[in-house]
Design a protein that fits this description.
301 residues; alpha+beta; seven-stranded antiparallel sheet; 8 helices; 13 strands
Length: 301
């Protein structure tokens, strides 16, 4: 689903197969938020067609705007033209030049769009939205809410590495998750840097070590800095964020990758009320190091 894999585990008092309902949830969200579905609400809005925002679109848009505001635009849902230009979006890659980036930056900015009722208003026609850095986390939350509506008290929902859990496993032990070691080309599958017990929380990880390409000997990552128009360049390799809900964890994991280690540390110190805990893996002169917030769950190894 959504271009990736998903796993959902839950404990029910009696046999309960929710596969059809879950498939329907994925389809409904795709028809609202997927830039890869030509008929979706977001695709129609990106083409400047008349489209009314539904509840999914409004929830994700409002959260994206809120995170954009508090991060001063380092997380920005209007980054779609840059994502496309660099070859990570829903259109063919452009030949990137400084003049192209300068022209695109004029239509990048979360303040260029707003909702009036269920209508999205753009300051410039060229503004386009991309929710790919937040929609998976939102989807995980919707699936978790669905399970809870069915009386499920013990579950783990995972979509493309974004996770939300509640309760315990069937044997009474806690849900245990691995934090992947950032490696571009692991020879024998992904290795774990550490494992944790998540509890009744959500987790998301963002990194620059999987979705990238090489061109003329240079590496270009999908993590783009809206303030420059170019792929973010810093020593942060991956950002794992734990939050009360997955939409929050997903958005800030991306934001921290744009910030880099020092700015992300400063942001965490300045915003304790956000209830975020983080596990950063970064490069220091060729060596892999970690920085862990004090409120992060105890590591198991």
């Amino acid at each position: 689903a959504q271009g990736t894999t998903y796993n959902i585990t839950y404990i029910a008092g009696a046999f309960a197969n929710y596969r059809v309902a879950i498939d329907s949830i994925f389809s409904t969200i795709d028809q609202s938020l997927s830039t890869y579905q030509p008929g979706s609400i977001i695709s129609q809005i990106n083409r400047n067609e008349t489209a009314e925002a539904d509840a999914h679109f409004i929830a994700v848009f409002n959260k994206a705007k809120a995170v954009a505001e508090i991060t001063n635009g380092l997380f920005d849902p209007t980054v779609a033209p840059l994502v496309n230009a660099w070859g990570f979006g829903f259109k063919k890659k452009d030949k990137v030049t400084p003049s192209l980036i300068d022209s695109l930056r004029k239509i990048i900015g979360y303040k260029h769009v707003w909702l009036e009722g269920n209508k999205l208003v753009k300051r410039y026609p060229g503004v386009m939205l991309d929710f790919n850095a937040i929609a998976p986390g939102y989807t995980v939350d919707v699936l978790a809410a669905f399970l809870e509506s069915k009386g499920i008290k013990h579950y783990l929902v995972e979509l493309g590495g974004e996770v939300r859990s509640k309760g315990k496993r069937l044997d009474g032990t806690a849900w245990t998750l691995g934090i992947e070691q950032p490696e571009e080309n692991p020879s024998e599958g992904a290795r774990l840097n550490n494992t944790i017990q998540l509890g009744d929380n959500a987790l998301a990880t963002s990194g620059n070590y999987k979705n990238f390409y090489l061109e003329e000997g240079k590496k270009y990552s999908h993590i783009l800095d809206p303030s420059t128009g170019y792929p973010a360049k810093n020593n942060l390799l991956s950002a794992t964020v734990i939050a009360p809900d997955c939409i929050t964890a997903d958005a800030y994991a991306t934001a921290f990758m744009v910030m880099g280690l020092e700015k992300a540390q400063q942001f965490m110190a300045a915003h304790p009320t956000l209830q975020l805990s983080v596990f950063f893996i970064y490069d220091k002169q060729g060596n892999t190091k970690t920085w862990i917030s004090q409120n992060f769950p105890a590591l198991l190894n």
